[in-house]
Design goal:
Oligomer: single chain
Largest sheet: 12 strands, mixed
Shape: globular
Distance between the termini: 53 Å
Helix content: 25-40%
Low-confidence stretches: 251-259
Length: 362
């Protein structure tokens, strides 16, 4: 991919991020002296290569930095390894150390590109790797392009998919984000995430010589209810032996009311004319319904790890046997404060700790 086209994908990706994420990226650029900030300008302490974006709004600040500064691109690409993602799936394998060795050997055969423009593909092909004390991560860059139905402009997306090898717990975690409907072919709407997970499992088998085994998380249901000091069950959905379904919301849950998708669909249909005047809101509602429909009809449990500082509490939803597969899809809820991977790592640590407790009891 040419550098110019790569910039188009980066800019399009920035458009998909919420305000909290854009502010974080802008801070990364400011701290790295890529952006001229107000204090530097007043003190005259400004890097010659720093970009003056003071008159631009937030999104344009970030896009300008990516278009004009290679260091900004590098920071952005590194941040994709450590950012939070919406979904994850946890696996084990028979020989974790062998998998880790194979992944590290694969990394040694690859050259380090100046940027990832040559590593953008329509399928899982060549990963970029990141190694730290506790994690070894493979990142695949998928590229998507479409026509925006709202304004008929081209839109682009750089869509990273991570395979995270947790060295201490010897767990393998797949991480990926929401994919907007506009990028998904109609025939794949209901299977886009399960197809992606299957593709990753196949890649690991064919390229890293390892069979991934889904970690059975059913034990969480009983363990969590015995461990109320650390976690709180926010809601639960179970299929009943009679063939019916039951949804239970537990505790003082007024701030966490789950929307009823059927009623929301009816409201959209009823107010279709008004929503046509607010296309961005209409698209957001339809995307929300799509995501929840995609995850519906499966037994699930929603947990919260409480923090003394309420805004730092962590919430996740565990969808068991997702799309009748043997794995559990974890949906990590949005948090306005916690930006990086710490939320996802906390969930993995909890899973591992209670997995060990259960094993010891057996």
């Amino acid at each position: 991919m040419t550098h110019e086209n790569y910039i188009l994908y980066l800019k399009g990706t920035i458009d998909t991020y919420p305000s909290k994420t854009k502010k974080h990226i802008n801070k990364l650029f400011t701290d790295a002296d890529i952006v001229k900030n107000t204090s530097q300008l007043s003190l005259g302490n400004v890097s010659e290569s720093a970009i003056d974006v003071k008159d631009l709004e937030l999104t344009e600040k970030i896009k300008t930095c990516l278009a004009q500064n290679k260091e900004a691109i590098k920071l952005f690409e590194e941040w994709e390894f450590t950012k939070d993602y919406k979904y994850s799936v946890v696996f084990t394998c028979e020989n974790f150390q062998q998998l880790l060795n194979n992944a590290q050997s694969l990394a040694k055969t690859m050259q380090s590109p100046s940027d990832e423009s040559a590593m953008m593909f329509e399928y899982l092909k060549t990963p970029i790797t990141f190694d730290s004390d506790g994690l070894f991560i493979l990142k695949f860059n998928l590229k998507f392009a479409a026509i925006d139905p709202l304004n008929e402009n081209e839109i682009f997306l750089k869509y990273p998919v991570l395979i995270v090898l947790h060295k201490e717990s010897e767990l393998i975690e797949l991480r990926f984000d929401v994919l907007k409907r506009v990028f998904i072919p109609d025939k794949k709407e209901q299977s886009v995430y399960s197809d992606l997970i299957d593709d990753i499992i196949r890649y690991v088998y064919e390229n890293l010589n390892t069979d991934l085994v889904p970690l059975d998380l059913d034990y969480l249901v009983s363990e969590v209810k015995q461990d109320s000091h650390e976690t709180r069950v926010m809601a639960e959905y179970r299929k009943l032996p009679s063939g019916g379904n039951a949804q239970l919301e537990v505790g003082n849950n007024q701030e966490y009311v789950l929307p009823i998708i059927g009623e929301l669909k009816e409201l959209i249909k009823k107010h279709q004319t008004e929503l046509e005047q607010a296309p961005i809101l209409k698209e957001a509602l339809e995307q929300f319904i799509f995501e929840n429909d995609e995850l519906s009809d499966y037994s699930w449990i929603e947990l919260m790890w409480e923090n003394e500082i309420k805004t730092r509490s962590i919430r996740a939803k565990f969808i068991f046997n997702y799309r009748n597969k043997s794995y559990c899809l974890i949906q990590h809820y949005f948090n306005n404060v916690l930006i990086g991977m710490e939320r996802m790592n906390h969930v993995i640590d909890y899973i591992n700790a209670h997995r060990n407790i259960t094993a010891n009891e057996d």
